[in-house]
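Bit of a strange request maybe. I'm writing a small parser for structure token strings and I need a real example to test against, not something I typed by hand. Could someone generate the tokens for this chain?
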Amino acid sequence: MLKKIKRTVQFLNENTEMRPKIGIILGTGLGGLVDEIKIEKSISYTNIPHFPVSTVEGHKGRLIFGTIGGVPVVAMQGRFHYYEGYSMKKVTYPVRVMKLFGIETLVVSNASGGMNPDYKVGTIMVINDHINMFGVNPLIGKNHNELGPRFPDMSETYDKELIKKAFDIASKLEIDLEQGVYLGTTGPTLETPAEYKMFRILGGDAVGMSTVPEVIVAHHMGMKVFGISIITDLGVEGKIVETSHEEIQMIAAEAEPKMTRIIKDLITTI
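Reply from user aminoacidic:
Good idea to test on real output. This should exercise your parser:
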């Protein structure tokens, strides 16, 4: 795996002169942040050695190099999910590549189901912690000490300084912002009412099928992490309605401009 990662990094070094310190992973229906990037180079996943290929609608599948507000960034327009059949090593492979490419701060976004009764469809939630309900951990297996420690501490996985900055930015922009715990599951089924109830009892404010694996690996490698979710459906008793992936994409797109503005302004402060 380490040889493959280094080969991918070598390919990126050979194909772009940019050396950004900030990486971005764009979630379902949240690719609009790309419009804020002054793109200098775009590479399809299919052309990157050892890179997986996204199979999910709403994930375009390309690595974008450019600047946001003059700050160099690399953005994944489309991520990989465990439910697509990829191993956890494959799901988190791009994060490993980012770190060895020089990324120090990772910004992750997603669309999720809200379980906090105070949330509504369209709520934007900053992630301040997570619960791993995937039933597997991306760090299982041989540990490479040059990538990170065997037993990483997870007491402060999401950077508190970046969270504070995000709330300061949201306040100035008069954008309502929540913060809470993201619970990650395998999918691809959406949750049953009983599962929503259980996950809420466990301490989750929002639930989704991504983010947790990437964040674990990013933290393992010493990266600062900022995570943000758009609540696209509700898992609150009495408010649960049938929904579809298409509806989730549509709702995410409606709330995206606010999230995009927060991330854009946040990046300029890092």
